[in-house]
From TrEMBL:
It comes from Streptomyces malaysiense. It is found in: Cell membrane. Pfam families: MFS_3. This is MFS transporter. Keywords: Cell membrane, Membrane, Transmembrane, Transmembrane helix, Transport. It is a multi-pass membrane protein. Gene3D superfamilies: MFS general substrate transporter like domains. One of its GO terms (cellular component) is plasma membrane. The keyword Cell membrane applies. The chain crosses the membrane at residues 51-74, 94-117, 168-193, 230-256, 262-281, 288-309, 315-334, 355-378, 384-402.
Amino acid sequence: MATVTAVRTRAPAWRGGFGRLWSAAVLSRFGDALRSAALPLLAASLTDRPLLIATVTACGYLPWLLFGLCGGAIADRVDQRRAMWTVDTVRGALVAAFAVAVALGHASIALLVALAFTLTTLQTLFDNASTALLPALVGPEALGSANARLMTGQKIAGGLFGAPVVPLLLAAGAAVPFLADAGTFLVAAALVASLRTGAPERAPGPAGSTLRREIAAGLRTLWRDRPLRGLCAATALCNIGMGALIATLVVLVTGWLHAGTAGYAAATTAYTVGGLAGGAVNRRLTAVLGPVRTVLLAGTAQTAALVVMGSVPSPAALVAAMAAFGFMGMLWNVNSTTLMQQRSPAGALGRVSSAFRTLGVAGAPLGALLGGAVATAWGQGTPALLAAAFFVLAVLALIPAARPDAPVAASRDGATTARAPG
């Protein structure tokens, strides 16, 4: 058993591959934002039935529940770089073909559902491979800064630039946002294909190994590591709370606060700006507190922000709380991802990351249903308080992970090796 030691942090070098991976990730997120904003608008132009429109969105989540763990196991078996550029090439071709169908007037709800489902199915492999690839490009001491730069760049591309560009592209034609998205996939694929990384760090798998056994071994590895187990439980609880908040935020702003669409835009913008500020200070704050305590601080502060959202009927208070919530959310995301990368056995990172993502996706729709129910029963501000309750449970789940000298669990699947940051 290895034990965790303090890790000196430093900024990642843009050379050596990280700059190209960052560029690919940010460009791809920009394209995702274009497609995510244009797809519901296209669906609404094809049908006025809310259930059909919602089905398009739901199919963007369902593959994570069906194939998320499988995608992580495959990511641990293959060359992650090759898997990423292959997946992006396929996704680029699919979206380009869809754009042609839209331009020719052949779009339909069935085609939108098929596209959303297929793209997210491919994403289950891409995202887990991307998480597993980053430690091969930067050293352990630079992982935190690398994750912060990746997430900050993606938030700028998707939150500040992507969605506002969609109306301009749609003015040029319904197919244009999808053509632009296809282009970002293909350029990102070329950037990832140009990376030069060593062979994945894994031992040969045991005879008769199957995806099912490898998934089970990855889950056992996650369960045996106390900080990862606590972090995974906390992430699942937080995503239930986030689902409740996101699903009812527009009702809270426009109904309870009577702030209208301008208030809703101000709240979401404050969240984005807060996230960017969190990414900027993450490295210095984590150097003082360490990643686990930073996540604990973030969860505690987010709980307080949610209480303000649900109990203070003031648009100004909501905007300030959303900014703080976004700031602390970035600290949570960066440090939880970094901890997962540092503590996971080298050959099991894809499976561990897939467990986190699958639980997160599963929690969001559950939270959305709970948020809608409590808003109906007890008022439009109560979903934020419900979210605060789940964040309290998440912080409690994290407390055992903050104890010193937590061992890094070694996998017993015969295909992975343990490692600790240091």
